[in-house]
What we know:
The protein is of the alpha/beta class. Helix content is 43%, strand content 15%.
Amino acid sequence: MKSLWNDAEAARYPGDLGQCVYASRLLGQDQTLVMHGGGNTSVKITDTNLFGEPEDMLYVKGSGWDLETIEAQGFAPVRMDRLLKMAELESLSDTQMANELKASMSNPAAPAPSVEAILHAILPHKFVYHTHADAIIAITNTPDGEARIREVFADRCVFIPYVMPGFRLAQYCAQVYPTLAGPQTVGMVLHKHGIFTMDDTSKVAYERMIELVSLAEAYLQRHNAWQISIPHMPAPAPSLRHDIAALRRDVSTAAGGPIIVAVHSDDACLSFARRDDVGIISQQGPATPDHVIRTKRLPQIGRDVAAYAAAYEREFNELAPQIEADLTMLDPAPRIILDRDLGLCTVGRTVRDAAIAEDIYRHTMKIIVQATALSAYEALPPFDLFEVEYWELEQAKLRKAGKAPVFTGEVALVTGAASGIGKACAQSLLARGAAVAGLDINPGITEIFPRRDFLGIPCDVSQEEALIAALETTVRRFGGLDMVVLNAGIFPSSKAIGDMALDEWRRVMTINLDANLILMREALPLLKLAPNGGRVVIVGSKNVPAPGPGAAAYSTSKAALNQLARVAALEWGASNIRVNSVHPNAVFDTGLWTEELLQTRARHYNLTVEEYKANNVLRVPVTSADVGELVAELCGPVFRCTTGAQIPIDGGNERVI
Ligand code: ZN
């Protein structure tokens, strides 16, 4: 591990708080030190208060901030005298502690201080940095971890046996640290949790972290437990989407609602899932206690979700009575699944949650393999982890949590999503919490929404294999398929039937009709597994109820698609799949409408372009966004009793009405 400290860059961060911000960001950049809100940092500063008096403050990382991107305002200023007094209390509930910490801040607008604030306060150095370094944990999480840590650091680090983070840990350290620490002390190792380093300058405190973690890495290296060679694995089966969607259906049932399942079948994940001893090494517990919130205590092995949920519930019923508070059981669904054929599956209410679980578990697998190479991987006992998973502040967050967006945990696929109505549909579905796969022939689709709950797939919908591959990719990324919006289509230039070439006719049918048949057929088994029932929305056209001359191929393709949708509504209703159509008209902000086409159509109706654009009963412009919102609503609970419907969205058309 190398120090990233750069004096010139550090100089751009003014003052003691700036120096702490700079070091925090350096620590945060290295995922082998901290991940996803893990770790915390602080600096002790004497401020002048409103009355002109000096006041000793602890600026400590606020909750909700990641070290990697933290800024000065991400630190909570807490009065040192109050923190030190709190450390001397006989007992303090974590809720009381959180209240007192907030009440002790000099700036009430600052974020809530880290629950480790008191611990930072009692350590007698200006700068205090705490990480969950992988290399340290690979050593502590072994049966003889304490002896090994003492061997690595001798008297340079104080060793603290495991104590629940929060007030109890701070109280314990306040009692033992002064007697254990000496002039040679530069750090503190928390058994099966992480490491602290400290100094009166930010640079030294940071570089000590790097130095101590490097010593741990060198120790692992000396014991052939550092370099983990990942064997090359035979590739997983090419078609796993039905298996994955069935697994997700079961996980969703256990979770009490739709959930994202992301499948990772690279060599690192497959080789771990296929180890002969996976049933032992993966069933010990997480690397550091706060991971339990993201990964649960144990991964599920294989596909029996009901058995996992039953075991989780049993453990809850066994351990909950040992805690005084009245606990609400979290959903018993796994967050990590290890499967011989799939590899690593990570589960989350949102794509972000599943990605965080992935990041954490990738590090956990490495730590487990390293600890196993050293001697054996050993995590904390179940009750210690249970205390963290059911920590009162986490339970309070749970009770306060607002209502999630309507499509949270659901997956939608939209064709023709790079522009116009398709893009607007994707936007409206994303806004309602769905993960969205967008297909488009335009390769720019991959860049259209730079967010991880959107997957852009370049795809020529006229190619059957391309459609099937897109479904496979979508299900591996998100776990299943709940909603399909069939929007992709072409609108050829105006042509009379007398001039219609068969080639052109067939091209329109291939894209506007055949592609949708293939996609519906291939999506059906996936939609049947949708936890809240499948939904299909077809973007039709006003031309279905009211065709115009010169658009025979387009109108016929859309009318046939409309009939396909009606038959699907009849066939699929018993599988709880709803199929509805929208018939937009005169939506001019789409790729179909070039200026030239607008003029041609306007001329056709003996109107100017302006008149043509406003040519509806309500005299309202109909935008792509309007159609996107209607399509998303059709997938939502308002329309839960509606299937086979055709809804015009055209500002009112006299011929349709
Ligand atoms: Zn920690």
